[in-house]
Design brief:
The chain is mostly helical. It has a domain at 61-106. The protein is built from 6 helices and no strands. The longest helix is centred in the middle third of the chain and has 24 residues, at 59-82. The radius of gyration is 26 Å and the shape is elongated. The mean pLDDT is 79. Keywords: Membrane, Protein transport, Transmembrane, Transmembrane helix, Transport. The chain crosses the membrane at residues 60-82. Residues 1-14 have a biased composition (Basic and acidic residues). Belongs to the SFT2 family.
Length: 107
């Protein structure tokens, strides 16, 4: 029981391991709050749009609005991560041109 109290209080009398000798102890870092992140937001909005599809009468309109907002948020998040010019150059490369045009027309 005494050994357990020493370990839990941080006053362990045993020899330090080899790793403890090589690497000094780091102070504990406080937990940081979760920052706003666009990719999970865009996935969430698109998923909500898919769930709203089953509402009678207004479901199709709500699906279209939420799914479109989710797609715009997805494109916006890649613009944020890569930068607008680099993203536009990659989107309009010859190998991606057809997919880009279809995506933009679909929105």
């Amino acid at each position: 029981m005494d050994k357990l109290k020493r370990v839990l209080s941080g006053r362990d009398a045993e020899e330090p391991s080899g790793l403890a000798e090589v690497r000094p102890r780091c102070p504990r870092q406080p937990l940081k709050p979760v920052n706003f992140s666009p990719p999970p937001l865009s996935l969430n909005v698109s998923f909500q749009g898919s769930c709203l599809l089953w509402i009678p009468k207004k479901g199709l309109v709500l699906f279209a609005v939420f799914y479109t907002l989710g797609n715009i948020a997805s494109i916006g998040s890649t613009l944020f991560l890569m930068g607008p010019m680099k993203q536009l150059k990659r989107m309009f490369e010859p190998t991606r041109l057809i997919a880009t045009v279809v995506m933009l027309v679909s929105i």
